[in-house]
Amino acid sequence: MPSAAPKLRHPRWWALLVIGLWLGYALAMLTRLPTWALPLVTVGWLVLARWRRWGAPACPRPVARVWPWSLVPLVLWGLYVYLAASFGEVDLGAVFFHLQAGISEHGGSGRLVSALLHTLSMLLLLVSFTWLVRVDRRWRTTERLLAVVLLAGNPMLYGLGQRGAAIVTDDGAWLDRQYVAPVILDAPRAPPNLLLLYLESIERTYADRERFGDAYAPLEALGERALVVEGVRQLDNTGWTMAGMIASQCGTPLMPAGLLHDSQFEPLGRVVPGVDCLGDLLAERGYALSYLGGASTRFAGKGVFYRDHGFDRVMGREELEPRLPDPDYVNSWGLYDDTLYDFTVEEIRRLERQGGPWGLVNLSISGHAPNGYPARACRERQGEFDGTDILYSVECSAWLARRLVQRLEAEGLLENTLVVVASDHLTMRVSAWEQLVAEERENTLMLMGERVAPRRVRVEASTMDILPTVLEAMGFVIDWHRAGLGVSLLSDQPTLIEEHGLETLNARLREETALQERLWEGLAPSQRAAATEAVVVPRG
């Protein structure tokens, strides 16, 4: 042991250990390698390094004061690994959209600590790799090739390249040609109310009792008297909250505004202004529309979207927190779901007193990755929360949603009302991640109402199909059973996924430009300037 101590104090082994830990961590985050395999990868790296004498060559040469070419590629990989570790699957569309829509008032304070620790570990990696390259000539001779390999293999750069290639693709309007502007041709004599409950990240995958126990059981019980749709997949650019809500309410993926945004350094003033969505259609029919969510409506353009698409009242943390009986009962994002649902009941009572058809959209927070925010009512029912078990939070979210529906029914507030329960998107990385990605995943979608017969439907669909499905479930007649890129799941018409497959649609989405222009019509400065010139009349 005394003879081994000086060797362990040598920077060689510390540098190799840091590199090995990072290698294991990256493989665990980017592949389906279980997290317990991380130390095995690290040990394997150290054994290989000892065998090859990395950092201690047989014929040592003077230390070269050089800077590795691979430092920048390593930083880019470090960013990609951080995104994968935080969200599970890296969606560049989400990154671009949030940068433009605004990320103030977010509740991810825990991620700031994670980002700081990740940055510090990344600095250690860069220092360790630089030391190895300077000390070991063999690494200096091959390191430039490694830099090229790291750049070429980075999925983030590959995604950026694909998006840039869309500008010169042969056909950037394939999806746009499939788009059908939503039009209501006929309506029932007494149009029903609509209650749309988005359950944050509560995907239907959790219904598998073998993998997740009874976490989803309250929703399964609710689904016994509902139309339950199985097989609702997730298309690219629909995998975060705003994208999921836009996909299900507008029938289209949320393609970021990109350079179509009129000001690249300010938050968006409008969100998908070029298409009509569920709120627009219902507002034209005289519906009073409300949105309630526990988080801030300033985050990611949420409030802008709802106000811009027919909603009369948009209430988030800023509007609801002052009304809390206990001002301290909030989490980093905002209100817990038990108090949010109390406000939801109050709002529906108000809408009922007002008369006329109404629609209310509600977004929960209990299941938010990475650990969820289980409410006080759940902790009293389920016992102590360990702070990490997402299945605890899933059960909480499911139970609160079922309890809300039962409470509204008991008060007679759901007469002539269609209730839709849906996940906004598939969950991001959580404690049950390895079980979730083990098999094919699907979103939650169930509909309850007088016009909907309870049953289960298995279909290959996407969240874009929710818009036409909801309209037809409410008794509205729409053109060709279609709205946006969606097809009503109450009809016998094939969905786009059934016709073309999910991979084909995702590939088309990466090449699409025309649909992006349709979504953001009117935001491009050149378009606005042209419109201004068209109405200017010369004097004289």
From TrEMBL:
Membrane topology per record: Multi-pass membrane protein
Membrane-spanning residues: 12-30, 36-54, 66-85, 112-133, 145-161
CDD domains: LTA_synthase
Superkingdom as given in the UniProt entry: Bacteria
GO cellular-component term (any): plasma membrane
Signal peptide: none
GO molecular function, one term: transferase activity
Protein name: Phosphatidylglycerol--membrane-oligosaccharide glycerophosphotransferase
Organism: Halomonas urmiana
Species classification: Bacteria, Pseudomonadati, Pseudomonadota, Gammaproteobacteria, Oceanospirillales
